Amino acid sequence: MDPQPFVRLSIGSLGLRVPIAASKAVRSDALSSPCTCEIRLRGFPMQVAPVPLINSPEEGPDPHSFAASFYLEESNLRALLSHSCFQAANAHLEIAVFSGREGGHCGISSRKQQIGAFKLQAGSEWTEGKAVSLHNGWTVIGKNKHDGSKPGVELHVRVRLDPDPRFVFQFEGETTSSPQIVHLQGNSRQPIFSCKFLRERRASQSDPLSSYWPTSSSSEQENERRERKGWRVMIHDLSGSVVAAASMVTPFVPSADCDRVARSNPGAWLILHPDPGGIDTWRPWGRLEAWRERNGKDSIGCRFHLIEEGGCSLAVAGGGVLVSEILISAEKGGEFFIDTTRQTPVPTPLPSPQSSGDFVYYGHDMSGGFVMNCHIQGESRSSKPVVHLATRHVKCVEDAAIFMALAAAVDLSREACRPFRRRLRHHTSNSF
Fold it and tell me: Is the pTM of this model over 0.70?
């Protein structure tokens, strides 16, 4: 398999220092408030990050901190460097720094104040595919940045470009229709896996995955209309061997006061891979929990834990290392990702990427930035998931299979989390 070239534009090591002479130009109440910045790059959503205030000459910004990352493929780079009568010659990275809070208190409204902005123009070095430091140090921002005789507010920022090649895969059909999975490279679509979706009420005794299936009883079968269970996905290589699987271990059931799967009682999948030391034996690699939230707009919540080696009892919640928790729009779809340098929309603290060894499970090191993402469609559209996988996590084809199983579970959770008053899509309800 050949990877597709991507580069990561990372912004970090932010810090703000305000000389005494320059502080007169900034409101005193703003200086005591947390500072934030808006990080913009043409063609990408704006990202927001805090900016620590450096109060002492002996202090400095954290050299290992991350504020934002943008992942650029060839088409993004061409767009950033192109020019027309409607656009500037080259796009630029902009970091606009604000102080104060926007809102009101005791009937008095307040607005955040822009202190200044840092701009870095995109150049030809962005397309060379090499690791390069674009900026690392202090720079004057604000009104006095063009007047060297006057002190100004200073921003410290580190901007780097690093090659981040990826393997790109796509499910050729809906996951419930047991599609092929192809590897994409340019205009080439090379079959690499096949996906088998099953929905059964009871596991066969001869099934090596039977220990990861929930037990079934006649009373539970009578309530089938009120729960979704027994779903699983098998990932086969081109020889027909099963190389990864996802098994629904906790049914998706509606909460008592509504017909949605609640965050307090999510459905769950185990992501499994064959045990190299045994025949027809499996090891859990991760646990994916999913639910449906309604905060103005319906969203699918996904929470993924890596399972420590020997953690075979983790068909129950509460163990492993949390590496991703994300909300995906139920209407529009969106992206599930594992990336230790990106902030997740759900405010759950993740382990620090700097903690050595915390993210190494069954040979997969989850530290150091982008690991994978999976793009799925909204409920009203046919979903053919597209999966990006960092090349450093793939030493052989089988390494990619476990992430295909995870992507399939994310996509199927979109179906499993549908309100129970709605019918499932045709393929889902007739696949057993």
Answer: yes
